[in-house]
TrEMBL record, chains A, B, C, D:
GO terms for molecular function: (S)-2-hydroxy-acid oxidase activity; FMN binding. Its EC number is 1.1.3.15. The keyword Ribosomal protein does not apply. It comes from Scytalopus superciliaris. GO terms for biological process: fatty acid alpha-oxidation. This is (S)-2-hydroxy-acid oxidase. The active site is at H243 (proton acceptor). The keyword Oxidoreductase applies. The lineage of its organism: Eukaryota, Metazoa, Chordata, Craniata, Vertebrata. InterPro entries: Aldolase_TIM, Alpha-hydoxy_acid_DH_FMN, FMN-dep_DH, FMN_HAD, FMN_hydac_DH_AS. GO terms for cellular component: peroxisomal matrix. FMN binds at residues 77-79, 106, 128, 130, 156, 219, 241, 274-278, 297-298. PROSITE patterns: FMN_HYDROXY_ACID_DH_1, FMN_HYDROXY_ACID_DH_2.
Amino acid sequence: MAMVCLSDFEAHAKKYLPKIAWDYFAAGTDDCITRDENTLAYKRIRFRPRMLRDVSVMDIRTKILGNEISFPVGIAPTGFHQLAWPDGEKSTARAAKAMNTCYITSTYSTCSLEEISAAAPGGLRWFQLYIHRNRAASQQLVQRAEGLGFQALVLTADLPYMSKRRDDIRNGFRLPPHMKLKNLEQEFEVCKKSLMDPSVTWNDIHWLQSLTHLPIIVKGILTKEDAELAVRHGVRGIIVSNHGGRQLDEVPATIDVLAEIVEAVRGRVEVYLDGGIRKGSDVLKALALGAKCVFIGRPALWGLAYKGEEGLQDVLRILQDEFRLSMALAGCASVSEIGRHLVQVSKL
Amino acid sequence: MAMVCLSDFEAHAKKYLPKIAWDYFAAGTDDCITRDENTLAYKRIRFRPRMLRDVSVMDIRTKILGNEISFPVGIAPTGFHQLAWPDGEKSTARAAKAMNTCYITSTYSTCSLEEISAAAPGGLRWFQLYIHRNRAASQQLVQRAEGLGFQALVLTADLPYMSKRRDDIRNGFRLPPHMKLKNLEQEFEVCKKSLMDPSVTWNDIHWLQSLTHLPIIVKGILTKEDAELAVRHGVRGIIVSNHGGRQLDEVPATIDVLAEIVEAVRGRVEVYLDGGIRKGSDVLKALALGAKCVFIGRPALWGLAYKGEEGLQDVLRILQDEFRLSMALAGCASVSEIGRHLVQVSKL
Amino acid sequence: MAMVCLSDFEAHAKKYLPKIAWDYFAAGTDDCITRDENTLAYKRIRFRPRMLRDVSVMDIRTKILGNEISFPVGIAPTGFHQLAWPDGEKSTARAAKAMNTCYITSTYSTCSLEEISAAAPGGLRWFQLYIHRNRAASQQLVQRAEGLGFQALVLTADLPYMSKRRDDIRNGFRLPPHMKLKNLEQEFEVCKKSLMDPSVTWNDIHWLQSLTHLPIIVKGILTKEDAELAVRHGVRGIIVSNHGGRQLDEVPATIDVLAEIVEAVRGRVEVYLDGGIRKGSDVLKALALGAKCVFIGRPALWGLAYKGEEGLQDVLRILQDEFRLSMALAGCASVSEIGRHLVQVSKL
Amino acid sequence: MAMVCLSDFEAHAKKYLPKIAWDYFAAGTDDCITRDENTLAYKRIRFRPRMLRDVSVMDIRTKILGNEISFPVGIAPTGFHQLAWPDGEKSTARAAKAMNTCYITSTYSTCSLEEISAAAPGGLRWFQLYIHRNRAASQQLVQRAEGLGFQALVLTADLPYMSKRRDDIRNGFRLPPHMKLKNLEQEFEVCKKSLMDPSVTWNDIHWLQSLTHLPIIVKGILTKEDAELAVRHGVRGIIVSNHGGRQLDEVPATIDVLAEIVEAVRGRVEVYLDGGIRKGSDVLKALALGAKCVFIGRPALWGLAYKGEEGLQDVLRILQDEFRLSMALAGCASVSEIGRHLVQVSKL
């Protein structure tokens, strides 16, 4: 079967992954409404393409926090990559580096940060973290990441508790015994199942800042009010995210709240987005609505499940080609020409 | 099969109940548009969740008419519980008491008020009534309920006549001979099929007030005009209800008119809602739009049909867990933090 | 099978009528969008029912052009009733009289006006006509109808040409040889297939008025502009109609333009409606939006196909019962209490 | 099977064309959203038909750039007609001439311009072109077309690069070896696959004007901004087109942007449309929204696939009959009576 578009990789993963792993990656909370909305919402946005512009030389590069990437798509933090491919996050890191983009590494990786760094030295990586009940453990993780050359911290804000994902409950999902959360081995022995501290507040951003020189990005913001708070607390970036529809169900699709947040932020920090990106034209829409860059979650896992780092590169390359072509057909020769005028949004 | 969410109980009941009983409980009027809208309408409401709030200590208790309940979900009045479980309303009363919530007992119960009271002494119960052509019979019922410790009267306003429920007509639905409307045995012998008095008006609220010290709640209000009338006639609470889609078809979903009624009432009385609650997040939406508490009808029957009082407790516990988790993920640590800001509502 | 609602009669007719006859009655133009919209549009209208009103004595009678009918539903003009039942329009006339309502008799009847009149003497009937190329033939028809006691003329305005109904073309539909257009036998011999005069204009209303003392009603109006013209040309009533979706396709559902026309007419003439009525609550919606009476087309044919005049009475009786019950559940004890406040209409 | 409407021809073509050819003609870009929207958008437009107007004499002729055509439907430029019928574009030219309408001949024809001209001498034809990297080749084509009597140039503006059409990639679509792009044989040998020049801008319109006396029409405009630019650069007409949904996906349906463009142009040039026309009433809607004429793409190919020039004439004749009938039923006796008042448009 030819791998022509990202849904081909999805179909492949659904067919070849063990059901329990497919279900885990595919899961949304409750009725999975937000998970599905994340993709459907793009269908309500139409382009207003401009014709007869010189698009003979296309430049799709961008910068995030000052680092150039080959195109505005990075890898969102997702856990347990060994469920998709034996080499796990090491393959992810290699693919991201090969494609010259950013890989946000999850705390819940099945390779250690050290293994990941060694697999793709010099690659642009950010480290995703939760603040744990055991603050010392969190502090240690932050400092390990900084020491290993990760260039930003991404604090996930939308998981004070794990949500209810029905299929995982039915399947009795748990990591297979031969896989480990390599970054948390010690900690897990102590307080299984309740690592995350649900008492975390905005003030803890200051605590994090006291531990590290790395810029802090907050992930999981869905309202302008929280965006304003994030800016005031000194974060350097915001990832508009609903955790892929895996936390509170029936929150809006991320693309549907992006414009509200971009407007609230008024350029003071960079705004990114994850959730629902399946085509190059989705990337173009997100950028038209103000995102500096987007991140892919499940599609990266489908790529891994197809052929490890090679499969993930295929996924990224398809998105890159589609993005470049969409830009050209919309009349934009460089990322700086993309703007709000390119799209019209239907109300729900 | 694991019972993970309320639709699991629905599927179980559909499979194991006699068709005629399932159809009776499931029935809506005419084309069942309102019945289905009651649940669909929740899908048009999106949360605006707030992040990084301290949700380590969750308090989901509330009070209705001054009585504390463990969470803002009670049991709506539905008839004929023996169709679902041999012990009928006695099991319902025991489950409600065990879960520390309110059970609105229907006039059309297959256990007598006395049996129900004896089954779960001290439980919080309200008594649902119709005003009958035979006013003396209604008076007697009110006074029996008051004597037995019921703490409020719930007058159903939307049933001057029974509506047309096609499946019940096709099935020739009637109560099996070994079940009885225990509270109405004498009366039924006299005037079968026309107990309800279609001449009842708002003035009859005053007549009811003259019979009892109990607070009166009116159930079946769908417009701000009637909400205003209810307040003016001295009721203490309003249940926004369309009788589960079982009376006039093609009235709005209850969640769609809740805000209009809450606004009209301006805090003078408590506003409750029934209809369409299937998940903890539905409860959160109703509270965000101003309900003090919601009541479940069919899901309680599915719980009974599964395992009697134990099954109903399962249903209530699932809703409780889901409600608590939804609150936390939306950034609310107590019921008092829930407000209109938490939701955005799409127009039809 | 129990005949509980009108769709039961539809299913029966679809099963037992010859396909060519079923297709002819069911046909809409082109893609049948308007035909289907006629019924779907009612689903977008919600009731705002009022509670605790005295509905113990229900009065569902109304008057059209001064004549009392038992409830605001009459029989719309449709052709070829012998395709549905051997006695054809004679049965229709008997059923309408038995139910004390109005029967608009089509020019294209398979019984003659004389036969129809003799079958149900004294029944309230209006005569539907087209203006033919052969004006003398039209004049003769008008005068025959007046002589036979028909009490109004209903001029169909939306058929300058027959529309394109795909199934009829595929089926090669034509009347079976043993059936005749009894009112037009002579005329048909002269100018088959082009009876209707496509040059007719509003001025021809004056010509009609010169031929008869009967009040003239115009059928097929869908815009306020034409409603205004109708009033100015002295018609006594307007039937908002799209010919059951059988003329220009993709015009609005009749219920969707009713309010616009009622508003334009400002009470100067009576406004009626046909198209899409399938339940008593549909009748209530049409009256709430300003119709004085509605007329049923296909459902009358399904009734005939079921059991002739008895079947049609069943259909009318079901509508009558449903209408009365809907009124009561909406809080109206008489037709005069029905008004615009009863409904809310969603925009398309 | 009777060929009653255009979808009959579609079904026939899908059944009898080789899959690879059907897929090529049917293809849209990416998820084919715009391709499907092109037809669906018409369903959201309703007529406001006027009654009792004299429609006994119907005149459906119109003029485009001063040339009279028998009705406002021409043939849009599509490539590779020999995939549909052995005689290819020669049959297309004959059918267009027989029906007295305009055929926009594609650069990518499988017959040469000379063969096409010889097949139907004197027919009204416009020549569609791209500006190629090899400007001399473009110049030669323009001058050949002018010499052969083509009466306008149609510059396609929306194809700086070919889009991504998944089915063609999966099928490995390429022209069968016995078919050739007759107009480009030499050129293709030089620079296969990259003929089109993506650096073309509005200034190249002036270059084109310097080569020819023919009026220039620009095809592929979807915004008022580009419409204004087109007028300012001296084009004589605009074809509102999204390339049948074959270039940038998720741009609006053409009928949805027509009014915006007509308004921007303010009558300074003629505005045409292609995309989604499947019924005579679609033509009426496009004219009501301001198009001077519409062009059909895929339906012409289905007609060819059915019976060559005879099949294409069937398609045109059906559209012509349907258009005339729709006009009459809407109350318009000539094209000049069609206007914005005839339609109401629902917002998405």
